[in-house]
Amino acid sequence: MVSTLSKDVIIVGAGPAGLSAAIYAQRAMLDAMTIEQEAVGGQIILTTEVDNYPGVPHTDGYSLVEAMRRQAEDLGASITYANVSEISHNEDGTFDVAVDSVRHNAKAVILAGGATPRKAGFIGEEEFVGRGVSYCATCDAMFFRNREVFVIGGGNSAAEEALFLSNFASHVTMVVRKDHLRAQAMVGQQIESNDKVSVRYLTSIVGVDGSTAITSITFRDNANGTQHTEQFDAGVGVFVFVGRNPASQLVSQLVDTDESGYVIADDRMATKTPGLYVAGDVRQKPLRQIVTAASDGAIAATSVSAYLGHPVEG
After folding, report:
1. Which H or E run includes 288?
2. Residue 237 DSSP label
3. Annotated catalytic residue 140
């Protein structure tokens, strides 16, 4: 494997966290390189409406990320499209980042690979993403104001999101494949006491259908295996909360993670390995939004600058 010259920092991932880190790295005059496996923006480019990013109302994920990319590149940021296959920590404290057939060396690394929602696996799930299927209640609840919505999942996240959605939807139905909720007892009590939330136990969604919106859902009774289809006059929402898959595998031997695989870091985005930082959805944190990802990236790059002895101007 061919080696290249060392960088001050390599940023893995070019979503909002990675692009924010790239911007702040340039402002700190760091020799930085950003590597993106697929498309700049990650999951956010699939979001058709973004109304909660301060200062940029009524936009979409692609447009917002494009503005971030142009800003980063205008400042001199370098974005390379390639697949990172390995990140290793050397005895001298530097890192080797294997990219295709090339091994880059860096004094510090910011992992901003994000996390992808786990799919529920029903028919029409991918087809209706952004048109009825959502993985983020905070992002999309307002688009289903006074409409009926369904929440797939029975854990804490699903229950909490169902409660949140009840502030907007006409009614929220939790679709739980087992005969009980896995959510904490207190959250379960809130579900039971909320008149706008009901639970269908031992039920799964087999598929969704419609023209421009979801107007048909096929359910399966998990107790006896029978299926039935329900029709809706107006488009309904199907919110999927069956877990997320953080992109932490590359550094699994260098960091501590929680039970779901999210990287544990301090408030400066530092992990237990000196020089290794994380930002965005790959990090353990209470809120995963574009604005918090951008904040993480700014903090991570500023922390790298301090770690390398490069003061950052305001």
Report:
1. none
2. E
3. yes
pLDDT by residue for the chain (314 residues), tens only, comes to 566 668 999 999 999 999 999 999 999 999 999 999 888 887 777 666 787 899 998 888 889 999 999 999 999 999 999 999 999 999 999 999 999 889 999 999 999 998 878 899 999 999 999 899 999 887 889 999 999 999 999 988 899 899 999 999 999 999 999 999 988 898 899 999 999 999 999 999 999 999 999 999 999 999 999 999 999 999 999 999 998 788 899 999 999 999 889 999 999 999 999 999 999 999 999 888 899 999 999 999 999 999 999 765 55
Percent composition of the chain: helix, strand, coil (DSSP 3-state, to 5):
25, 30, 40
Annotated catalytic, 96? Answer: no
Which member of 96, 139, 281, 296 is catalytic? Answer: 139
Catalytic member of 140, 209, 258, 267: 140
- Residue 136 a catalytic site member: yes
Q: Which of 136, 233, 256, 296 is catalytic?
A: 136
Which residue bears the tokens 């340039």?
A: 26
User: pTM value?
Assistant: 0.73
